[in-house]
Amino acid sequence: MRYDVVVAGAGHNGLVAAAYLARAGRRVLVLEKQDHVGGLAISAQAFPGVDARLSRYSYLVSLLPSKIVKDLGLKLELRRRRYASYTPVGATGLLEDNDDQAGTAASFAQVTGDGHDHRAWGEFYGMTAAVAQALAPTLLEPLRSPKEVAALVGPEAWRDLFQRPIGLAVDERFDDDTVRGLVLTDALIGTFADPSVDLLTNRCFLYHVIGDGTGEWNVPVGGMGAVSGAIEAAARAAGAEIRTGAEVIGIDPSGEVTFVDAEGEHTVTGERVLANLPPAVLDPSQDPEGSQLKINMVLSRLPRLKDAAVDPRAAFSGTFHINESGDQLSRAYTQAVLGEIPDLPPAEVYCHSLTDPSILGPSLRGHAETMTLFGLHMPARLFRTNLEKSREEALRATLASINSVLAEPLEDCLLRTPSGELCLEVKTPVDLENEAGLPGGHIFHRDLSWPYAEEPAQEGRWGVETEHERILMCGAAARRGGGVSGIPGHNAAMALLT
Fold first, then answer.
1. Could you tell me if 332 and 402 lie in one domain?
2. Is the CA virtual torsion 25, 28, 34, 38 positive or negative?
3. 389 & 421 share domain
4. Rounded-to-integer distance, Cα 135 and Cα 129, Å
5. Structurally, how many domains does the chain consist of?
6. Which ranges of 287-412 does DSSP label H, i.e. alpha helix?
7. Least crowded by CB within 10 Å, which of 220, 242, 417, 457?
8. pLDDT of 385-402, one tens digit each?
């Protein structure tokens, strides 16, 4: 059977591409090996008998452009968080309140001792806001040259965010080590690198601050599954055919796609094929390495803070930073390089249900909260030799790290399932590799790329092309991919439609 386009993989990017192409009148087939669509942008009941739908693998939305939402008519609500972050520091803490600039300034002064770092914070994030506003629209356009992007963002931002390691700019701008670490965490999400020497951290930082021109990280109402569900609905309404339980086992440069399902092996042909798959699936010689620890939890109540002046609901509705000062990040990185699980793992958590209680069933609403944790500097190599033992070690160390900044053990606040098990689920990079098919457990499929053409031959192209004319990439590994964005799906569709 022939189609105009065959999409291999029904992650959210593949669904975005399918929706655009089907709306343009193309005959589209989407093949997905799992029994559900959405890839890692899904919601799930992680704990038996506990009526909570957790965003199990991906948590917040920033990079999804409002243009894609509008183009596809997505029925989707992304809710703003009032509190951006809280960072415990001894018996006090740094609370960043989006709606109270004076309160934020006072919190900075309480932690740093003077107003210097708060002023530097305003200047630095004023610069990143200008970069976001200028650069975000270009993510949905053909690739620009480095010279064009440099002119777009200005010489200061080009130097500090693109040309030299971001750790150097952070050290120069900020005096307080807590504040330095707070900035640098955005350069290390899912990225195992040293921000003082490696420009990979700059790329990671850019994708964390330019989302939709604002850089805000918002809560998807209904959980991450609501995002994929809305895109799926748009694709189906446009006429795309979506088959789950259909695993692609071969893609030929001629456009022939082979897949297997419950009825056996089948072959279809696409005039074009969009690969919404990690490159290492198609080319096993590639060897990506993810670096994160994900822990999903349901709490019976929020834990008490050492700083009684801060409401835990404020602290945990934003991003709650745990032992992520500059020095702590550096120490954890050094230990991981040496093959050791960090003794005080840096991590961050937030409670989705504080902003969107709809993910809790009626029996839990008002009586429980969800908590999700993202741990830094946990590369796959630490879990290769003995997964069970290293996972347990990483969990123990991470819980100890959390407890070091709380007024009580987090374990005392965990809800239990009807059978008595703690509502706590741990996912290492190797678990993501084994369970979700991500080579190396790399959440971005491979190291993030610069959001422009790095070679003259790429200028004016969409960043989705491969060496085979009939095969395009439409997943996270495409240039300007990574995160829940839909950008690679949009760009792959535009490469065929324009």
1. yes
2. negative
3. yes
4. 10
5. 3
6. 312-317, 326-337, 352-355, 387-403
7. 457
8. 999 999 999 999 999 999
